[in-house]
């Protein structure tokens, strides 16, 4: 398996390869090389840039954080970019799941001070429109993760509802803002 630039990636199972081909996320050449149509290696670069900017602090609760969180979720067209990503702890990232930032703030009572989150919260409908616009204009090769590529394919084949479940009504996991047990570092 290689990326768009031909750089080798970790080999994947035949099942996963078949799934990638079925989903239109990869092409198979005659010599058996599976070429991904998106750029997973760039994802790591963005993660490092966001980490450098935000440190190891969760932008939502202020606790220790190590995961890359898309403020406008990927399924809403949110991009893996500095303007849409913050560092979050696993509790915040996982409990928010696909909920929009305004919903998460309502659930938790958090008042995030991170400029990326504040900027998006200031006019969330506009941020959603911008995200959808970007999704409709960018090529598949600009997607930086499998999830992003799947959303791209669904959006461009008018089946975006398949990857955009109704936003959850409550946090995915039981949310306990007072407990911060997520100290072991997790690198995606
Ligand atoms: Zn957090």
Can you lay out the helices and strands and say which pair or pack?
Blueprint: H1 14-22, E1 26-28, E2 34-36, H2 40-54, E3 67-70, E4 85-88, H3 90-96, H4 101-108, H5 115-122, H6 124-137, H7 146-156, H8 160-163
Antiparallel strand pairs: 1-2, 3-4
Short description:
The chain has 188 residues and is mainly α.
Describe the structure.
It contains 8 helices and 4 strands, in the order αββαββαααααα. The chain is mainly alpha-helical and 188 residues long. The strands form 2 sheets. The protein has a two-stranded antiparallel sheet. Strands 3-4 form a two-stranded antiparallel ribbon. The chain has helices at 14-22, 40-54, 90-96, 101-108, 115-122, 124-137, 146-156, 160-163; strands spanning 26-28, 34-36, 67-70, 85-88. The protein starts with 13 loop residues before the first helix and ends in a 25-residue tail after the last helix. It folds into 2 domains: 1-37, no CATH class; 40-163, no CATH class. β1 (26-28) and β2 (34-36) form a beta hairpin. Zinc ion (ZN) binds at residues 58, 60-61, 63, 65, 88-89, 91-92.
């Amino acid at each position: 398996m290689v990326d768009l630039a031909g750089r080798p990636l970790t080999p994947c199972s035949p099942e996963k390869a078949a799934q990638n081909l079925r989903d239109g996320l990869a092409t198979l050449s005659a010599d058996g090389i599976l070429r991904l149509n998106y750029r997973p290696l760039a994802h790591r670069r963005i993660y490092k840039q966001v980490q450098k900017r935000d440190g190891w602090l969760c932008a939502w609760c202020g606790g220790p954080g190590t995961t890359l969180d898309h403020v406008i979720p990927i399924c809403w067209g949110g991009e893996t970019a500095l303007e849409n990503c913050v560092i979050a702890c696993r509790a915040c990232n996982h409990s928010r799941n696909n909920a929009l930032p305004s919903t998460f703030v309502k659930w938790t009572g958090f008042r995030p001070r991170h400029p990326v989150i504040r900027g998006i919260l200031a006019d969330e409908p506009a941020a959603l429109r911008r995200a959808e616009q970007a999704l409709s204009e960018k090529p598949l090769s600009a997607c930086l993760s499998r999830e992003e590529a799947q959303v791209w394919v669904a959006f461009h084949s008018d089946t975006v509802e398949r990857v955009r479940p109704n936003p959850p009504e409550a946090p995915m996991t039981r949310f306990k803002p007072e407990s911060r047990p997520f100290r072991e570092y997790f690198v995606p």
